[in-house]
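Open question from group meeting: does this chain pack into something compact, or does most of it stay loose? Before anyone orders reagents, we agreed to write out a predicted structure and look at it together. Recording both the input and the output here so the notebook holds the full record.
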Amino acid sequence: MHWASWNVMTVSLLTLAAMTVPAFNILVDPYGVFGTPWPRDSNAMNERFLKVEHVLKNAGKYNAFLIGSSVMGIYDPKVAERIRPGMRFYNLSFLGGTPGESLAVLRTLNRHGVKVHEVVMGIDVYPFRKRVDTDRHDRRAHPSVTGQNRLSWYASYLFAPSLLPGLTRLENNLFSQTEFIRFDINGGGRYILVRNELEMREDPDGYVRTRINPTPDLRPARLVVIDDSLRELEDLDRWLRHNNIRVHYFIHPVNHRVLAAYSAESLFQLKSRIMKITGPIPDYTLDRRFTHNDYLYYDVNHYTSSVAKQILHEVLPASDNQHLMKSLDRRA
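Structure tokens returned:
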């Protein structure tokens, strides 16, 4: 083969290979950022981008938010709205979300004209003992939050590693009888564990036996707290109060199997440090209605939507609704 022909063929093959990755990422859209229509969501949807993008495009639609980590993700904003008439809630929680991320997003929404009147924040232990990698493509913040150029942000997704989440999305759409997860991005923002819900309804005993019971028994150990997360919570609380945003805090229930892994003293110290910032707040960590019933959990770290509904009814006050409506009329 002539060298010129060889060079042309080599360049052509390299160009074809280079274009395969962005074509796959756009057509399959494993992270959901390109908006390619598929009947079912990807397990790796970048909710940090998608939720903020939706709220920014609908700046006047929402005036209240549910914030926190993935435990908060199953909270239904419609339930909160029924308890708090006049509030239009959106679930703005993130997988592994931290107080610092919530603050950055709320500040961004505020700069773009989104008027925030109320916030409900469920606090769990996870962000205070472990931080997720937010540089991963399924967890990267919206460019309006970070200040990154929008085109360069999108460009980073053209060549993003995506084979596993892409194939998972294809399998979920083309071969699986039941979808795994549904992100209600354009609705209320929560996620629904469709497959888990179905399995729990069909065989609750089997679900607990296979999904919950295999969790090994753990010996109590001291919680090593990330002080930065506490400082972020303090910054968030200060910003909310400075902007006259009403905040409803509570501390999430903890499954008894996970609870057994924390020394009682260190858990008490963490909650004391949290309440030093927030003031006295509802604490469900030792509430046996929720902590010792394995049938109320998708897994040992995430309780079900029925628990979330009950907690909202207990945490959100309904007695001041008339005053709330008058206050909103004055602030509108």
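Observations to bring back to the group:
The chain is about 50% helix and 10% strand.
The two ends are 76 Å apart (CA to CA).
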